[in-house]
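Subject: Glycosyltransferase RgtA/B/C/D-like domain-containing protein

B.,
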Amino acid sequence: MKNWLIFIVLGIIYFALAIKDPFITNNLISNLEPGPDTFYYSVPAWNLVHGNGFKMVAHGVEIRRIVPPLYGLTLVPFFKIFNDVRSYYFLNLLLDFISIYLFLILIKEFFGKEGYLLKFALGLVLVTNFYFYNLPTLLMAENLLIPLTLAAAILMIKKLDLKNFILSLLIIPILAFTKVSSFPVLVVFGIVLMIKIISSKFLYKIPKKMYWFLIPLLVLVVVVTLSKIVLPNIEALSGAGNNFSPVFLGKTLPIFLKEFVGIDGKYLWYNNQQIEKFVGILALFGMLFGLFLRKFRINIFILGSVILMVTVFHSLMSYPEGRYISTVVPLFLIFAGILFEKFKSPFLIIIFLGIYFLSRGTINGFYERKVTSLKRQILNNRLEENEVPWNYRAMENFNSYFREENNDTYLGSLINPFYVMYFGNGNYQYLPISVSQEFSGKGKGFIEKIYEDDKTIVSLYRRLLTEGKKVYVTNYYLKNYKGSKEPEYKNLEDSFKLTQVKDGCLGECKIYLVELRKK
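Prediction pasted inline below.
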């Protein structure tokens, strides 16, 4: 009963921090961040619900899916119920509640006892972590990968029996079908499972009749592992080219390691600490101290190996993005409880929470006490203009101008084609502006397929105008590319006559009518 009470209290606190209305524009949910990954996960699910198959297709153009399908498949029921892509937020909320529940189970398994106060304290640190309670707003597979990583950690720590063996065989393909970055977790998971099987002589203890079930399951897992994990990962890593290499290790690994102890942090467009410094340092000392205690040594080696493998693996990438290590942050937080468990003092836990909530840090540009930042977050969630999803506002502006359906009307935009598919009103056809905008280039190629018959975008526009089509362009997103698309937009200005027909977004999403220049 106490476990459920802890879960409910933590759930309420988390809900207060995370709850937003995805269907209004006082938050960034409508922007569908972070792109382009969000579209690789959501578009096939959206198309499946609308009868177009599990495909990356929009505006009659299809490109290859390049991410594992599981997170996308979990989106399907929500897209079906709400018929709005922003309903992904509700799935993410559900997954994060599952993460909280699994985190509490992991605490129990790690320490080998209930420890209600310790469980509540560590759970409180997790649910009040900015990146955790902000996670539902992001349409990315980490929402699913975190509970799966926690489940894998629990199975690695628990004693091997028939039920846990079957669950272990099942979670391997589930992790593999979630995200390529689960590879290091699978490596550690496989090694730990093999060590347990050999050291415990587990296979000799299984009833012979169970072999008829376990052998086919094992063969299936091996086949899936080779065909869907090993080979695709080799292909993905080889295709990464200059972006994935050991040469980045010396630069990126120290950045990640510092984030574990609360020094700096870079996570998408946020620059907040990955973990509060006080908690990170306590967790580090707890981990080192626990290595000298027989009770915790093996469990620390297991969780530490997962953390290290994930961190080193992503340190081979050219850019030290904090979300790559966010999936193992909950595992690292567990170590903060080792010193409290050793000295068995509830008073120390209370002091820890007092320091945690009263210590100062920078969250979203405000240097203030933790408790103040949490209060600010709860209040900001209700503000009418807390955040502005400019992509969605731009689409509203376009839709308000093109009120009547016309298949001969085209709008050129730097907004990616899948976003237009989600939020456009269907009264205009999509056109690109740049040959290098989002979803162009090797392995994507959506933009190239639109103008490939005309060779250039200018030629495409000229043909449409010659055929009597009405063509418009918008200046929206030019500043997002920091001027890199200005020359291509200017090329359109030099080649055609552009006349402004609508303003919007404080001048940042104007609409222009495109016409052939008179000779």
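The longest strand covers residues 496-502.

T.
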